[in-house]
C-alpha cells in the first residue's frame, strides 16, 4: 500500500505536465496586440468585400458594409471560442501541437462551412422568427443586424471572462429578442424554438452516451484483455472504418449536395464501401505500428493517435457546416432583402457570404484560439488518446445528425456532454472508492488521513462537478442576455433610422 500514494502522486504530476505542455504551446503561438490588428483589418476587408460583391442603392451601402463586418466579427468569436473545444483534447493529450491543430482546424472548418453549411443557415435566418408580411424590409434588416451584433458582443465578453457559453444559444437569443422587440411575441416561431430547445437537451445527452459507449467498448475489447496488441490489431481498424462510414454518409447526404444528389440506397452503398476501404487501409497500418509497441496500455494509446486526428478533423468539418449559420445566417437574411422588395420565404446564400463566415472561423481560431485550447484537455476530466478519440467521434456524429435535420445545436455543449460521458464512465468502471484504506490499517492515522485526502482529490479529479454549475448557469443566462442586448440594439437602430430620415 505504501507504493499507491506515490503512484497516485505520479499521476497527478503527469496531469500537471500535460497542462504545462499545453500552456507552453499556447504561449509560443501567442500573437499579442498583433492579433487585434489583424482582426481589425479582416473586419474592414469583410465590409468592403460585401460592398464590392453586391450592387445596392446608395442609402443601403452603410447597412450592407456594417452587416458584412459584423458577420465577420461573429465568425471570429466563434472560431476563438467553439473551435478551441474541438482541438483541446488532442493537444492536451500531446497528439497534436497547437500549430498543427490550428492548421487542421482551419482547413476543415472552412471546408465544412463552404460545402455543407447551406441548410442550417436557412434555419437560423428564417426559422426562428416568422416575419411574413408583418415586418417591413427596413425593420427586418435592423432586426437581423441587432441579433448578429448582440450575439457577437455577448460571445466576445464571455470569452474574455472565460465563460463556457454557446454561440448557437447566443444567436438564437439575439434573433428572438430583436424579433420580440420589433413585432411582439407573435413574431417568434415557437414551434421551431421548441425544437431547438429540445436539441439543446438531447444533443449533449446523446453525445455523452455515444462517447461513453465507445470508451466502454475500447476498454472491454482492447485495454482490459491479456493480449492488448492482438485486440488492438483487430478492433482499431474497425473503429477507423466506422468513422469513415459516418463521414461518407454525411458527405453523400449534405456535403456534396450542390453537385451530387444520391438516392438513399446510394448513400447506404457508399457508406458501406467507405467502411471497408478505410478498414482495409487501416489493417496494415495498425499491424505495422503494433510491431514496435509493447503490450502496455501507454503503448496501445499510441494506436489511437491517427484515429484521433481523423476524428477531430471530422468534428471541425461538422462544426464548420453547423456553426457557420451563427455567423452568416442573419447576414444572409439581410442580403436577401437587397434583391427583393419584401422579406423572402427562403434565403439564398451567396458564396461571398459563406466565404466571410469560413474565413472568420479559421482566422478567429488562428489568432485567439490557442489561449483557450490549453485548458480544454484538462477542464472536466483527464483525457488520453482513446478518451479524446471517443469524445471527438461522438461529438462529430451528434453534430452531423443535427445538421442533417437542419437543427442549430451547440457544438460546445455536445463536446462537454461527451467529455462528461467519458468521465462518468471512468468513475463507474474504475470505482476509486475501493482504493481507500480500510479502518485499522498499519499506516499511522496521520499517514492514512493524508492518503485518503490524496485519494479524495484524485476521485474528484475524474469529473470536476463544479463545471456542471457553470455550464448550467451559462445555458440559463446566455439566451436572455443576448435577447436583452439585441432588443436594446434594435430600439437604438430604429431610432437612428428615423433620425436619418
Description:
There is one protein chain. By secondary structure, the protein is mostly helical. The protein has one domain (31-227, 295-430, 463-500). It is 79% helix and 0% strand. It has 18 helices and no strands. The chain has helices spanning 3-28, 33-53, 61-92, 98-116, 118-126, 137-160, 167-183, 190-223, 228-255, 264-290, 297-301, 305-338, 351-368, 370-376, 385-404, 411-430, 445-462, 466-500. The longest helix has 35 residues, at 466-500. The protein is elongated. It starts with a helix and ends with a helix. The relative contact order is 0.19. Residues 1-9, 434-445 and 456-460 have low confidence and may be disordered.
Write a compact overview of the structure shown.
This protein has 18 helices and no strands. The N terminus is likely disordered. It is mostly helical.
Amino acid at each position: 500500500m505504501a507504493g499507491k500514494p506515490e503512484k497516485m502522486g505520479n499521476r497527478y504530476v503527469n496531469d500537471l505536465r500535460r497542462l504545462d505542455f499545453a500552456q507552453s504551446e499556447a504561449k509560443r503561438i501567442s500573437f499579442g496586440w498583433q492579433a487585434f490588428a489583424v482582426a481589425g483589418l479582416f473586419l474592414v476587408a469583410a465590409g468592403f468585400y460585401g460592398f464590392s460583391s453586391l450592387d445596392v442603392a446608395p442609402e443601403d451601402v452603410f447597412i450592407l458594409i456594417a452587416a458584412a463586418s459584423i458577420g465577420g466579427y461573429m465568425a471570429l468569436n466563434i472560431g476563438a471560442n467553439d473551435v478551441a473545444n474541438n482541438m483541446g483534447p488532442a493537444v492536451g493529450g500531446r497528439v497534436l501541437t497547437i500549430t498543427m491543430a490550428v492548421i487542421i482546424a482551419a482547413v476543415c472548418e472552412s471546408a465544412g462551412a463552404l460545402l455543407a453549411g447551406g441548410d442550417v443557415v436557412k434555419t437560423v435566418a428564417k426559422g426562428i422568427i416568422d416575419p411574413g408580411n408583418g415586418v417591413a424590409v427596413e425593420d427586418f434588416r435592423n432586426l437581423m443586424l441587432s441579433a448578429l451584433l448582440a450575439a457577437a458582443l455577448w460571445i466576445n465578453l464571455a470569452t474574455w471572462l472565460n465563460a463556457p457559453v454557446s454561440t448557437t444559444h447566443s444567436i438564437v437569443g439575439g434573433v428572438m429578442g430583436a424579433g420580440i422587440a420589433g413585432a411582439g411575441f407573435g413574431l417568434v416561431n415557437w414551434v421551431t424554438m421548441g425544437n431547438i430547445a429540445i436539441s439543446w437537451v438531447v444533443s449533449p445527452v446523446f453525445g455523452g452516451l455515444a462517447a461513453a459507449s465507445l470508451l466502454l467498448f475500447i476498454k472491454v475489447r482492447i485495454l482490459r484483455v491479456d493480449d492488448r496488441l492482438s485486440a488492438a490489431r483487430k478492433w482499431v481498424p474497425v473503429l477507423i472504418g466506422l468513422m469513415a462510414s459516418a463521414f461518407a454518409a454525411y458527405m453523400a447526404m449534405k456535403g456534396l449536395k450542390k453537385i451530387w444528389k444520391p438516392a438513399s440506397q446510394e448513400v447506404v452503398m457508399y457508406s458501406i464501401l467507405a467502411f471497408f476501404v478505410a478498414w482495409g487501409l487501416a489493417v496494415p497500418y495498425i499491424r505495422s505500428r503494433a510491431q514496435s509497441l509493447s503490450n502496455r496500455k501507454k503503448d496501445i494509446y499510441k494506436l489511437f493517435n491517427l484515429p484521433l486526428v481523423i476524428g477531430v478533423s471530422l468534428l471541425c468539418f461538422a462544426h464548420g457546416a453547423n456553426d457557420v449559420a451563427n455567423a452568416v445566417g442573419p447576414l444572409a437574411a439581410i442580403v436577401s432583402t437587397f434583391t427583393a422588395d419584401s422579406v423572402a420565404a427562403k434565403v439564398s446564400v451567396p458564396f461571398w457570404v459563406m466565404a466571410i463566415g469560413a474565413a472568420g472561423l479559421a482566422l478567429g481560431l488562428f489568432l485567439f484560439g490557442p489561449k483557450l485550447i490549453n485548458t480544454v484537455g484538462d477542464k472536466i476530466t483527464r483525457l488520453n488518446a482513446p478518451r479524446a478519440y471517443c469524445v471527438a467521434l461522438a461529438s462529430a456524429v451528434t453534430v452531423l445528425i443535427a445538421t442533417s435535420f437542419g437543427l442549430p445545436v451547440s457544438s460546445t455543449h455536445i463536446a462537454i456532454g461527451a467529455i462528461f460521458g467519458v468521465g462518468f464512465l471512468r468513475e463507474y468502471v474504475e470505482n476509486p472508492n475501493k482504493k481507500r484504506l480500510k479502518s485499522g490499517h498499519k499506516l499511522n492515522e496521520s499517514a492514512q488521513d493524508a492518503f485518503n485526502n490524496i485519494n479524495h482529490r484524485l476521485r474528484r479529479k475524474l469529473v470536476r462537478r463544479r463545471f456542471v454549475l457553470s455550464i448550467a448557469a451559462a445555458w440559463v443566462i446566455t439566451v436572455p442576455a443576448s435577447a436583452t442586448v439585441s432588443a436594446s440594439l434594435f430600439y437604438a437602430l430604429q431610432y437612428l433610422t428615423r433620425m436619418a430620415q
